[in-house]
Design a protein that fits this description.
By secondary structure, this protein is of the alpha+beta class. α3 packs parallel to α5. 23% of the residues lie in helices and 23% in strands. It has a single domain, classed as Endonuclease/exonuclease/phosphatase (Deoxyribonuclease I, Chain A). The longest helix has 23 residues.
């Protein structure tokens, strides 16, 4: 089973490109972030015509997460139970929850598509919100692992954290900014402490997943590694290969992020239809 995550940066602007990639790369399930649309605005037909069903959580022209799968999706969950909310000027439990998390189960594998808050600036309330969001998610993850230790689990998406200095092109550019601060990196490391692991980095130690549109960042390879697939041990045991599809940052109207892909040693009802490779 081939599983991917991709911050598409507006699915209405890139549905053709995303669907073409899914078909061309034989992807079974993709978790998407920043779809930037409400359910009634999503381009379902393009996906259904290619054999994919869609589950999504979108509230406005901002944020938004989704799954597209050509295998049945079960146990769809919108937001995680303790997910905090955010709204400017509201610092209480009444703050509305943004469209940043959706979970599905495919072939017994539990998958979450996540769009972690950006944080904006270190002194901004959004930064505190980001740290709280990650802490609450880590606590939920610990519970999920305790309740179903044998179920493969993966948290996938745009984490808006660069855990290592090598995950940005020049640390001096980022000093004093979000994405690389010690509290953010510690919040990311908490997921390893509760029992998850980065299933891509052991296979691809170097490489970025995001390049800003400005200042020729992509041609200069001035990027960041902020998109990850973190899996439980049962999930990691299924992973046979991984890749970062850098080429999807090229061409006409690309997203500023590229897909991250893993192959799982898991037979599905579609395997008989796959082309044989010798």
């Amino acid at each position: 089973m081939r599983v991917a995550t991709w911050n598409v940066n507006s699915i209405r602007a890139r549905s053709g490109r995303v669907v073409d990639w899914l078909v061309r790369e034989d992807v079974d399930v993709v978790g998407m972030q920043e779809i930037k649309c409400k359910p009634e605005q999503f381009p379902y037909d393009a996906f259904r015509d290619a054999g994919y069903e869609v589950e999504l959580h979108g509230l406005s022209q901002w944020n938004g997460v989704a799954f597209a799968s050509r295998l049945p999706m079960e146990d769809v969950e919108i937001t995680f139970p303790t997910q905090p909310g955010f709204a400017k000027g509201i610092e209480s439990a009444d703050a509305p929850k943004e469209a940043r998390a959706i979970g599905v189960t495919v072939e017994g594998v539990r998958l979450w598509s996540l769009y972690v808050p950006n944080g904006r600036e270190l002194a901004d309330p959004h930064y505190t919100y980001k740290l709280d969001w990650l802490a609450k998610l880590a606590a939920e993850t610990r519970t999920w692992l305790e309740e179903k230790p044998d179920q493969p689990l993966a948290l996938m998406g745009d984490w808006n954290v660069a855990p290592l200095d090598t995950d940005v092109w020049d640390m001096s550019v980022f000093e004093g900014h979000t994405h690389v601060s010690a509290p953010e990196r510690d919040a990311f490391a908490e997921f390893e402490r509760v029992g998850l692991q980065d299933v891509v980095r052991p296979r691809i130690p170097e490489g970025y997943t995001y390049w800003d549109y400005k200042q020729l960042r992509f041609p200069k390879n001035e990027g960041m590694r902020i998109d990850f697939i973190l899996g439980s041990q049962p999930f990691a045991d299924l992973v046979t290969s991984a890749r970062i599809d850098r080429n999807e940052r090229k061409g006409d109207a690309p997203s500023d992020h590229v897909p991250v892909v893993v192959d799982l040693d898991l037979e599905t009802e579609l395997d008989d239809d796959r082309p044989m490779i010798f």
